[in-house]
Amino acid sequence: MIETYTVKSLILLVISGVLAGNFALEKLMGAAPVFGLSRKENNLTALGVGVLVVMLISAPLLRAVRMFFLAPANLLFLQNICFTALILCVAYLVAWLAGALLKRPMGPYFLILAVNSAVFGLAVTAASDGLSLTATMLTALGVGLGYLFTLFVFAGLREKIDDFYVPKAFRGLPVQLLAAAIISMALLGFK
Amino acid sequence: MTEHKSLRMLAAENPSMILILGICPLFGSTADVRAALGMGCLVLVALLASSLIMGLLKHCITRQFVVPAAFLVCAGVVSVLELLFHAWFPGLYQILGVYVSVLSVNLLLFAATADSCEQSVEKAISQALVVGLIFLAVLLSASVICEVFGNASFAGIEIPALKDYKISVLVQPGGALLTGAFLAAVLNAVAEKATSSESVSDWFASSFGNAEKKEESES
Fold first, then answer.
1. Which residues of A touch B200 (CB under 8 A)?
2. ipTM of the shown complex
3. Which residue ranges make up each domain of chain A?
4. If both were cysteines, with which of A79, A181, B30, B116 could B178 make a disulfide (CB 3.0 to 4.6 Å apart)?
């Protein structure tokens, strides 16, 4: 495939992954683990960077599997199972590596966070849109950074919200969803 | 150590738990009532099928492998349903797009499937039915609000009276989240417990984190 991207368009791919194309807030993929994250979770940075690494490894891997194995063998109907299994393997590998590097286990929630709709949706859209390898990697970087950004923003928001009075019915999920709605509308401005 | 609570108990305490877990398919299909009905039924059938399969397989799966097995069972079930959905409802499949494939790694489906390993097949099926019906009800109410007020139509039929009063943000992801926030607030108001007291990650840690630890201490 001939690469016809300029440096500007490549940088734009990353930035749009973080802002306008934010998977968790604009496409609502992978938002469930973000909202469901406990406030007791202390290794947020490790979890977020772990998800970014899983995206960076799995997006080109799944693209290659689809392009060189599933499509030529006419096995595209196995795409969902194949992608899920591969993302799981990558997530286990990253969890193991991170555990060895950080000298502490990543915890059971890492898998739930890493095998999410954002990772899967990214791989499916990149594969079906026929993006080149460079574009896939940069989109994965952008989406991964966007996910990390969302994780941090919501961790911060949860602490801030605790300082203010919230009506009883809105405590917990509803107020978080309201905050997400406002951020999502703000990000629409970058389109 | 926290006692294991089934997903059904959690949903009975506060149905907005279902809203958190199923947030992706829920808000991916709120702009059209027909798409929402299709997605709701798809999730219900997927929940029933994957809980049944996992319930039958539970004796062959050791506790450490519950998480990967549940993910693979979900992906398999969703693959089959996606092919059927594509063949029978091509129009709806086009509207829902990538959200159907993305169900393979959906947290709601995964939670119900993994949880059915802890209980008998009948209980797992009834749990899947309850969870699926709550999801369908929440999804339909959200999509009715979003489509009627955001698009001034119902199931594709235009409502002339509302034509000049469209709130177009409601058909955007932000509007879907806004509708979801108010629905969750209504669910919170009628539920016994606020969602904040038990978040999803606490539930996973108490259900599957301890399961792994138990296994280690037993061996």
1. 32-33, 35-38
2. 0.86
3. 24-31+41-147
4. A181
